Amino acid sequence: MTKSLRARRRATLLGSCMLLGLTTVQAHAAAGAPSLIPLPANYQADGGKDFVLKHAARVGGNDEASRRVAAQFVELLKQNGGPTLAVAENANKAQIRFRLDPSATNPAEAYTLKVSNTGIDVSASDDRGLFYGAVTAAQLLTDQTPGEVAAATITDAPRFVWRGLMLDSARHFQSMEEIKKLLDAMAQHKLNTFHWHLTDDQGWRMEIKRYPKLTETGSCRVPLGDAGRNEATGQPRTYCGFYTQEQIREIVAYAAQRHIQVIPEIDVPGHATAAIVAYPELGVTDQKLVIDNQWGVFPNLFNTEESTMQFLENVLLEVIDMFPAKYVHVGGDEAVKDQWIASPRVQAHMRQLGLKDEMEMQSHMIKRLEKFLEQHDRRLIGWDEILEGGLPPEATVMSWRGTEGGLKAASEGHDVIMSPVTHMYMDYLQTESPNEPPGRPTTIPLQKAYEFEPVPAELAADKRSHILGLQANMFVEHTRNNRHLEHNLFPRVAAVAETGWSPQDKRDFRGFTQRLPRQLQRYRAMDIAYAQTPFQVDLRDKGDAATGNVTVTLDNPLGYPVHYTLDGSAVSSRSPLYSQPLQLKVPVQVQAAAFFNDLPLAAASNFALTADSLRVREDTQLGLCPNGGKLLLRLEDDGPAEGEREVFNVNIFNPCWLWEDVNLAGISRIKVRAGRIPYNFQLAHDEPARKFAPAHSRYGEMEILANCEGTPLASVPLPAEPGADGFLELEAPITAPAARGDLCVRFTGDTRPNMWTLDWIRLEPAR
Ligand code: ACM
After folding, report:
1. Residues designated as active site
2. Which domains does the chain carry?
3. What is the pLDDT of residues 405-459, one digit of tens each?
4. 435: nearest Cα among 693, 607, 306
5. Which residues are CB-contacts of 44 (< 8 A; sequence separation ≥ 6)?
6. How far is CA 410 from CA 160, 422, 708, in A?
7. Atom nearest to 334 CA in ligand 1
8. Does residue 383 have its Cβ closer than 6 Å to ligand 1?
9. In ligand 1, which atom is closest to the CA atom of 383?
10. Is the pTM higher than 0.70?
11. Residue 324 bridge partners (DSSP)
12. Do 677 and 293 touch, CB atoms closer than 8 A?
């Protein structure tokens, strides 16, 4: 019965008024090449006079298709924060001119753009190229001095044909408007593939007319805890959502207008719980299943019967009808085979087919689906697990568990898309800031995403063309709303887009960070809730409350210059520049911001350091205990159903927090504030890694350990429930060693289906 938790103390962020100041960044911006993202293949300054956009400027095209792109350009420019221009009846009277020239020998998606004092001319041999020229023109006109563009010639074409983004609409569900906004943003980044993950354990999100229960039953679950209960009635409150076939067609058409192909994913044979709940005959066991609000890897697989294969083929028939793209994704990932191993029917089926193990059984299924798709003029894609047990001859592999699967598949002559979890997973958080939303705190910072190289150095030269491109994957277990979704995606999608589009030898992270501030301005114009965290300043402090001495480290995750004040006054680019740790005395008020061209990149951070604050650490300031398994997650509370929720950093394998190198001299008591949240993870074969310290009383204890080992300094029994606000304050008298050392705080016992989490820990001196 976890209650929703109150908002808690964080570094306060000052001044949305400062952000507004960014709209005048143009006045300060450095001269030079424009801030284009992705960087074009060739940009040549022409040295002539600049083009200056007038209010009465017109946009035109030489034929109907070009005029369509002209109209799209008007929209793109407006989205980027530029003026609303009109399309001219007569192309000769236009200043921004689009021209389709099918006789030109440009590669696909390529374009040429020429800026002179008379206007901007964009030409291409296909409408995709012309559209990308329009995207570039809209960026040029919303650059350092909006409306003014330096004379230049751009010849541009993408490096890879597959520049993708995967969205999981199963774990959480996005509205049509949210998906269209995402497609707009993808187009603005010249991304061309939207991989739509529509089925999973937690929900089936696509109407299939032949099997109505897939959405009638399979699209709803009851969230755990507060969000799953109607407060007034106490009745279950469901979380539901699916897209009708009409809506899917609408999305496919909307994407197509922006030259984005939509690749549906139907996950087979695992991640199938929602389908099996709707049609139990598809499952392996007789166990009655429900659609659980749990994350992780579920045991439930489709069975291998002919009737199930026919079900899947019937589903694919409707899928093919809705999605015109060449590819259909059939998943194949994380299908733990325990149910197949335990099933006499599946085992008999395997013997009958002469298959030596369950991998070959999965491969048999995937090969059959591949053949079916081939018969319908489609190509199969699967996650890299489809390599196991033998890859179907024409399959394309999406390499997610690293790049090794992709390397192997490409070496064998298969097409590959690289989307490794190490670099391309957008549910991994991008900084260590306490302001990050829920997600996985193994961080994938912007730079790491940027520096991912999709073509492995080990791949033979004659096989490199099999790397079709790269893809960012956005799984949304921890991403409940669109604001968090956009935070996770942006600006990292810009990095992915540049890797997908720009020539390898032109990629340069520092150059990218110089172009990024203009892109942020475009995001603001598009109302994209991009992550502020990479542009903020993080503070780390290490001090001694007894002496009041504190060493303060300031950091901007992207390395933009940091300025600060220590007297509570507003920070500006004229304030001292941070260059090395500051030796300060508490109390002190630190205000800091990262700057680009004299303007702050995000709201200033404000930190009040006092003797009291030195004795307190929050979960995000603590590490993981040295012993036991480690799976750190940033988890949110279970309520309220809508709106902001409390978040906690917690190691779900071992709920234990580490405060390194702390001085316990003179400390007589330790206070801990704990919260409680649902424990909702299916861990499959990782289950043994989950180790809870043994409980010594009915509900377990909070234990404090010096140096994280031996007999606890203190052990406080836990109650059955937290307080009415969902929190619990615990106090433990200690006889501490008068020395510095590491301190661990853990909760003992197996408290599932809930878990205690640490909110903060405070050292109390002897009175
Ligand atoms: C995946 O992350 N299971 C593809």
Report:
1. 200, 271, 334
2. 33-156 (3.30.379.10), 162-501 (3.20.20.80), 533-611 (2.60.40), 617-765 (2.60.120.260)
3. 999 999 999 999 999 999 999 999 999 999 999 999 989 999 999 999 999 999 9
4. 607
5. 152, 153, 154
6. 15, 19, 47
7. 3
8. yes
9. 4
10. yes
11. none
12. no
